[in-house]
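Ligand-bound model needed. S-adenosylmethionine.
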Amino acid sequence: MGLIATISEAVSPPRILADPMRMSILADELTRCQYTLSNCARRLGVFPRLGVNFWSTLRRKWEPNENDPVDCLLELLIDGREVPMDQLRRHLSSAFVDTIIETGLAEKDGSILYSRLCLFPCYGKFIVTDRACKNISINQVMWLWGESFILGGMVKRDPRKRAIDLGTGSGVHAILASEHCGSVVCVDISPRALEFARFNAAMNGIRNMEFVLSDLFDSIDGTCDLLLANPPYLPDSGNHVGENFWSGGVDGCNILCNIVRAIPTRLEKSGTANLITLYPMLPGVSIKEQFNGWLQGTLSHYEVLDYTWPVPHYQDLLSEKPFEGDKSAWRFGVVSLRRLESDKGWWKEAGDGWFFREDGSCCVTADHDHLRACARSSHTSAK
Ligand SMILES: C[S@@+](CC[C@H](N)C(=O)[O-])C[C@H]1O[C@@H](n2cnc3c(N)ncnc32)[C@H](O)[C@@H]1O
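Prediction:
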């Protein structure tokens, strides 16, 4: 098996139970068992660029201990292994076991439990996604991996009025934003993704989220002061944009460029847009020039933190017809733009791609105020 397996099986989204108390059992019990990012990091190891090694094919050898609740949860809800029901009941309440079966998070075969989904801890929240393999029968909801934990850790958690999370998938970034934003709009073109996002909001007891089926901003009114996006980004001539979570069209930028073009009308002054993605630049074109083009020459109206790093050997594991040309200018990471009243903006290259602490959390915050002073000294005109 390569780094990523391909399967073909129908998988239903998890079901929300009508009683909110029963939904809260899930998060309460996972918290009680200390199913946390740092406990997962301690068992599975951490890559400085990719975060916790949830992906079993990349991981050092790990022998689960059946007497350890976190190990049992990792076996069942990350690795997709069969776990005896009695074993899980030793650590988690019967109500938890009943609830994971009723919601479809786990299935029962005699006295054995198994799961077709994944459940990740993420900065104090819990996120259900599809399994970390390529399933050609469904429009999969992206599992969490390095990029999720980078963006999740990097967004500055200042109070905000309204956040919009474009391409919300599991809703991970919207759920994290719900803690510090008055309201959060979760947007996806995939109804299946919105079912997962709704489930995850209910499991985490969140009530200030709205779920909108929309092609980017098409069905969304108004502006926001926090824009989040992890759009599909792979240059893929074999797939149609919007049919899966990875295809960004032939040049990879199909969705990204539409998001950036909308920023001047959708992001309020002093608002911040945080975009994590692959930037598959053509040789000779810098990200900065590319953004200035998408923003029609108005890049100087933004303070920009560029946390991208070069990825000239980027390996596309998902596309049917991956890009085979020159990747020497490709970069990956977060670009964080704060909109100004003036045209005194700047662009600062702020990171080198080594983002993870040993506990699996991201050690960098995209803080425009903090970096403003040093950015001024490296000011280069975007005008
Ligand atoms: C790379 S996934 C990111 C999911 C999630 N935000 C995360 O970071 O884990 C991209 C998501 O964008 C959605 N998407 C693709 N095209 C879209 C469009 N035109 N409008 C809205 N969502 C779109 C996909 O369905 C998918 O859920």
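The first helix runs from residue 20 to 32.
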